[in-house]
Model the fold of this input.
Amino acid sequence: MAIRTVVWGENIHERINAVVAEIYPKGMHTTIADALNTDSAISATTATLEQDEHGLPQARLDETDVLIWWGHKDHGAVNDEIVERVAKRVWEGMGLIVLHSGHFSKIFKRLMGTPCDLKWREAGERERIWVTNPGHPIAQGLGDGFAIENEEMYGEHFDVPEPLETVFISWFQGGEVFRSGLTYRRGNGNVFYFRPGHETYPTYHQAPVQHVLRNAVKWAYNANNRNTAVHYGNVPVEKAPEPITERGPKLHAPGEEGYK
Amino acid sequence: MAIRTVVWGENIHERINAVVAEIYPKGMHTTIADALNTDSAISATTATLEQDEHGLPQARLDETDVLIWWGHKDHGAVNDEIVERVAKRVWEGMGLIVLHSGHFSKIFKRLMGTPCDLKWREAGERERIWVTNPGHPIAQGLGDGFAIENEEMYGEHFDVPEPLETVFISWFQGGEVFRSGLTYRRGNGNVFYFRPGHETYPTYHQAPVQHVLRNAVKWAYNANNRNTAVHYGNVPVEKAPEPITERGPKLHAPGEEGYK
Amino acid sequence: MAIRTVVWGENIHERINAVVAEIYPKGMHTTIADALNTDSAISATTATLEQDEHGLPQARLDETDVLIWWGHKDHGAVNDEIVERVAKRVWEGMGLIVLHSGHFSKIFKRLMGTPCDLKWREAGERERIWVTNPGHPIAQGLGDGFAIENEEMYGEHFDVPEPLETVFISWFQGGEVFRSGLTYRRGNGNVFYFRPGHETYPTYHQAPVQHVLRNAVKWAYNANNRNTAVHYGNVPVEKAPEPITERGPKLHAPGEEGYK
Amino acid sequence: MAIRTVVWGENIHERINAVVAEIYPKGMHTTIADALNTDSAISATTATLEQDEHGLPQARLDETDVLIWWGHKDHGAVNDEIVERVAKRVWEGMGLIVLHSGHFSKIFKRLMGTPCDLKWREAGERERIWVTNPGHPIAQGLGDGFAIENEEMYGEHFDVPEPLETVFISWFQGGEVFRSGLTYRRGNGNVFYFRPGHETYPTYHQAPVQHVLRNAVKWAYNANNRNTAVHYGNVPVEKAPEPITERGPKLHAPGEEGYK
Done:
């Protein structure tokens, strides 16, 4: 079965900004979903901010293997309850790919536990994306890396936790560098941050960027993403793997739930 | 100057539970602070839930190098605003040591970005804490490890992100294991989770446990914990490290702040 | 195409020790290969120490996707040249799974850069293997973990580098713990160390152990394991991605190779 | 007591190349040692390739807390026995700082377990070193980073294992990036790789570079660097932490040493 992927787009600048609308007439989310659907291993649909429940009702998320997130202008408009819903699905095993200005999205900050701040400059300068981990599945088929002629600069320090692996690092014409491809696991869910994608440039129309996104969806996919195999909570004394005798004082009466 | 350390205790069971009150007549926080103060490199004081602002007004946190956190019965009573205040200090560089049932504290879950769930059993069983990283500063002076005769069991899976380093792993009489000493960095702040310390046992009176706590305070200490050296936000084109010429369309007017 | 897997066995105790011969009449390597071949996604064959070039001529390694290594009695008999040959294939992207006493094999020590020492006891005690990373592909289908009734104990400290991820931790009846499933990447090659498998017990006949091995082969497989896409060495000034002018003194004449 | 630091220099180009001799008339090692000795917490001396035992007899290494390594032209001339001697001291807890072209030194490749290859270009171009981990002790006092006007370019992919933490990333005028500050632990020893330092430029005379080196020595220092507290090898059944009864067949007679 193809990897059920939802591309979430904020879909604001595509509607209110003429430049963006011209580059992405159907919205960035649609451009990205179309690029994913060129690969038969992926089945991508879209969701946007203005939809009911931002297009992410529980039933849909339950049948989503990988979620891609692009937002910029109005992160604050995303409902906190839906952020928690997405976080819970990631912990269960849904993959999450956060793009560009999504670094400041509620869901990314929620999962990182840090401010996710950075430097930026909007000058249409050249970005060179170098592969720092050529054996990683997300880097396959990219050789040493690739360039994007016009992009917004993001510069270090990028205030995120040390990643599991650094897959890409960007060079910018104006003198800065940025860790552009970072992997994390949160609960059972694979998380990938990928830097490029400022909305005033045609970044998501470029072949290498689309290639990275397809690789990333496959990497983020966890077949076991409705993981219920792990047992948390109390293990009664009589169910201890090794026979033991209870001793000493205790707080909890038998069968009582723990504090949370 | 000694490392300014605040030991935060929930201080509930010490007051309402006779067993706990007998073991820790002045509160667990005081026992821990006293143990830290045997080392002249550390200057420890205490704070508790019931105090105004939970004993953690901004001015005090600003002068705190390392915060130790023990809570269990009423994590929910901790004010969200103070949780954010503590998180912000960690990002600036304040060290944070989270103890035992503090795994479910708001501040720990906030910084981890995961549910931090686990298995548990209150049977007074034996715990053996093994050193898995003998070169780590927190493990110095402990040899291969040490035992605690009576402890609550915590078992894997412990739902936290992969740590920077695993310093201790616990063996339990009833058959479980647990990663008992884990390090993280969040922003500029060093974070250490240390498992032992169920309130119905005299864990914090034990010499090896106190030794770990002193080591951990020294490790978590970051001399530069009011870090303001990093610049985030917009880098105007004319201040790019390398001279560049602006080109292409853009979203932001000159000097305009970015979206958050 | 199925994952071309070679199971390398030292094949000494199976021939000279009656107990081992009875448990593994065709050799441990054959038992393991048979277990892998129950999955049509894997195509496993065997190689042993006494064969010419230890059964690992270059041409065979070139067509090997994943190599599994079990050795114990005579690590020193493995030819250094073949160790380097295997290491080079791992750097290119061949997966490597090192089993049990293989912790002291030349190839594992070569790739880890540490002594890989540990504690051990041969008492037929019970081992409980707990999953510490339920979202990891190698842990799929194992729930919380599983037990092995009779095993050799391996105890911490295990002197290896901090892993990318800790997948399993073992509990032993005699009181020790051990990080039993550890992942690494070396060059483009995925490396997994898996602890169980003392030759005097029927460990590799057990279903959960076989399940882990199949999971591990699939995880270790890197489709791009003849990676030649990365360019190392000199980048002449005229081929710099950005036009630059050479300046300042230099050591090397144009086109000269670097020191190694 | 000051941190006993030995700066090891190959000391070849300083003697045979006029450009290098003019920049470092007393050798690069002396310039580095002098820079370290401006800090009273460090006591630095030097050792060079041409000395007896390369200036690193066992007795001297035994009293060395941190070793700094610079080599380039003749890595092959370093005696294998001395490489093993240094590796063993690192495993015991001696810190190791590897500089620039030392990426190809025997000791670095020995500890990394990878080829440590990279791209390079000798064009005297500008390098900008950015701090990617402002909370790390090695980055203290550097703000966002610093620039070196003339340096050799090193470009990704740098074929080393994923580090514990990435502290610096370099930007090069010609378009490449490089992970310029990487931390590792091998055994009990802290290892830091720091990129800058091509011998035809006055890099080690620059204040920020010297500042990094002083920070790195303090970070790499492990007070317990003659670690003998960890016990490896056999744990006899009667000395198991928990009482167990031996059962099942075994390979080893009582008291017999394991295979290596």
User: Anything to note?
Assistant: The radius of gyration of chain A is 21 Å. The longest helix of chain A spans residues 207-220.
